[in-house]
TrEMBL record:
Annotated source species: Arthrobacter terricola
Residues that bind substrate: 150, 330
Domain Alanine racemase C-terminal intervals: 262-392
Pathway per the UniProt entry: Amino-acid biosynthesis; D-alanine biosynthesis; D-alanine from L-alanine: step 1/1
Protein name per UniProt: Alanine racemase
Keyword Chloroplast annotated: no
Length: 401
């Protein structure tokens, strides 16, 4: 990303609505559909699970889930049972897996709603108790830890977990629907650990099959493995980041992977003013203007999800991109517009893009991730509810004129 100062400026205009929101995250659901179709083609004959945890990485779980299913995803995935129940309450009845639980998780509601439940070990008895209470067999996916070191039964515990699950299945209390694991370094294709995890997963499947498990789905691949490791696809791939059009690979952008970023975060310039050389900017006065200049005030801050440490992050106004200067505050940040002269009054109310799809060199979530020293997952997911979500192309394509 390169930045340049402008001697003059034509403010952006927004049309098509009588009311322009002060700030919003615009979610292009056609971009989501495009990305899903891309992964469906790559993964075939395996099916695609659209991972919509964390409110669809900040994009809106219900809206994204519907768009993903419209475009060919066959499964949905979330972390928490509460997220799954919200999708069911919205009328979404697709196969749905939740995999991260605590002792207070509502397994009864999950069983009643037909939500598949990921099982790492301790949850099994609690899920069986819920199945007895609901008088309905639970649908479970057994998770094996092949090397990530988070959830999942260890290889040493796997035999016992499979055996216990099959005993309960024989009693009619559950159905072992799937076996799954999670890759640790698939976003670094040169790493040998992915081969080691794949081998461990194959061994775990063999153990389960020898015990009589007959699954609907075996799933291991995340977004980077779906893109780079077809040998990890099995019956189902879990696509999270790629669903939203973002690249999991360092050195490869979305366009190079055939993906379209779905989220654009934008606002309006709230103020601008001429200042002399040496003017300090924001808390700490860590930046001073190197010349007489115009400062633009952007009404987004860390309460909106902008990383406080991301000084230097890009903001686009018109066709010019400017870096944030000074410390990012709770509600606002500042850009140095340079010597825009008498045009400063016209800057107020101009549209300012924090990040979008990168068209014409505009700023992206990747640029903000670089400024903050984090990844693009965090940038989109942390955009707070204070920034309203606006959905473009919400209706299925077949229903549009």
């Amino acid at each position: 990303m390169t930045y340049e100062a402008a001697a003059s400026f034509e403010p952006a205009t927004t049309s098509g609505s009588a009311t322009v929101l002060e700030r919003s995250a615009v979610i292009d659901l056609d971009a989501v559909r495009h990305n899903v179709r891309h992964f469906v083609a790559i993964a075939s004959p395996a099916n695609v699970m659209a991972v919509v945890k964390a409110d669809a990485y900040g994009h809106g779980a219900v809206q994204v889930a519907r768009a993903a299913l419209d475009a060919g995803a066959r499964w949905l995935g979330v972390a928490h049972i509460s997220e799954a129940l919200a999708l069911r309450a919205a009328g979404i009845d697709a196969p749905l897996l939740a995999w991260l639980h605590t002792t207070e998780s509502n397994f009864q509601a999950a069983v009643a709603a037909g939500v598949d439940i990921g099982i790492s070990g301790w949850e099994l008895d609690a899920v069986v108790a819920a199945a007895r209470e609901q008088e309905r067999p639970a649908r479970i996916h057994l998770k094996v830890d092949t090397g990530l070191g988070r959830n999942g039964a260890t290889i040493d515990q796997w035999d016992e977990l499979v055996g216990s699950a099959m005993e309960y299945q024989d009693e009619g209390l559950l159905r072992v629907v799937g076996i799954f694991s999670h890759l640790a370094v698939a976003d670094e294709p040169h790493r040998l650990e992915t081969d080691e995890q794949l081998a461990a997963f194959r061994e775990a499947i063999a153990v389960a099959e020898d015990a009589g498990v007959d699954t609907e789905v075996r799933h291991l691949a995340n977004t980077p493995a779906t893109l780079s490791r077809p040998d990890t696809h099995f019956d189902l791939v879990r696509v999270g980041l790629g669903l939203y059009g973002l690249s999991p690979f360092e050195g490869q952008n979305s366009a190079e992977l055939g993906l379209r970023p779905a989220m654009t975060v934008r606002t309006l310039v709230s103020n601008c003013k001429r200042v002399p050389e040496g003017q300090g900017v924001s808390y700490g006065l860590n930046y001073r203007t190197p010349r007489p200049s115009t400062l633009g005030l952007i009404p987004l801050g860390y309460a909106d999800g902008v990383p406080r440490v991301a000084t230097g992050g890009p903001v686009q106004i018109g066709e010019i991109t400017y870096p944030v200067v000074g410390r990012i505050a709770m509600d606002q940040m500042v850009i140095d517009l340079g010597g825009v002269g008498p045009a400063e009054a016209g800057l107020r109310g101009a549209e300012a893009i924090m990040f979008g799809d990168g068209t014409n060199g505009g700023p992206t979530a990747d640029d903000w991730a670089a400024a903050a020293g984090t990844n693009n997952y965090e940038i989109v997911t942390r955009i707070s509810p204070r920034v309203p979500r606006i959905y473009a192309n919400e209706a299925p394509e077949a229903d549009r004129p």
